[in-house]
Design brief:
- This protein has a single domain, classed as Methane Monooxygenase Hydroxylase, Chain G, domain 1.
- The protein is built from 6 helices and no strands.
- 39% of the residues are buried.
Length: 206
């Protein structure tokens, strides 16, 4: 049995954990917003604050990469991971803002499920990020991110199909929901990209 001793830099691992916690908070906030659908301006403002916090964490990681002589993983892999995590939080903010900008009166059942899927993905990413230090028991969390993406893919395709085949749907509503479903799909795909970035780091270290 072979293993690799990683150079310890607690600050890097603290930042990974902080990024995961922040991502999970943003996804949970979007899920709650879509599920409850009240106090929209306040909820969007909270998500915007979390997106800003995510940017601050990413900037700190970049500074550490520039200053550190030794890093726990390849610099390119660390940069890729935090970039993909940032994409997810950016997508969450864009979705939340779109509900307000488009004046959506009520979320669809599909939108609620997509928000729940994204929330579940974020929980699994957070758990995996908490375990990056020891590189143990990550794979089951990352596998669930992929499973959830497959569910979301089928759900969004079906939702778009119904949207374009409903003769009673006003064209402006078709445009709104097409953009929202695509926003969910892109953000859920970004969560899968983050999982794949972690998988590459895991396999290189083992």
């Amino acid at each position: 049995m072979s293993f690799r001793l990683l150079p310890k830099d607690p600050k890097f691992f603290e930042l990974f954990v902080a990024d995961g916690d922040n991502l999970a908070s943003a996804a949970a906030a979007l899920h709650e917003m879509v599920d409850q659908y009240d106090r929209l301006e306040s909820r969007v403002s909270g998500i915007q604050a979390l997106e800003k916090r995510g940017d601050e964490i990413d900037e700190e990681v970049t500074r550490r990469l520039e200053d550190a002589f030794v890093t726990p993983f390849d610099r390119e892999d660390i940069h890729e991971l935090v970039s993909r995590l940032d994409d997810v939080v950016d997508g969450i903010q864009s979705i939340a803002e779109a509900f307000v900008i488009y004046g959506v009166s009520e979320p669809t059942a599909e939108a609620k499920r997509l928000a729940a899927i994204l929330d579940s993905q974020a929980v699994e990413l957070r758990e995996a990020l908490h375990k990056l230090d020891g590189l143990k028991d990550l794979e089951r969390h990352l596998a669930l991110v992929h499973t959830l993406e497959k569910e979301a893919d089928g759900l969004s395709r079906a939702a778009l199909g119904r949207l374009f085949h409903d003769p009673d749907m006003p064209p402006i509503e078709v445009i709104k929901w097409r953009d929202l479903y695509n926003g969910f799909e892109d953000t859920i795909d970004a969560a899968e990209d983050a999982a794949e970035a972690m998988e590459r780091m895991y396999h290189k270290a083992n």
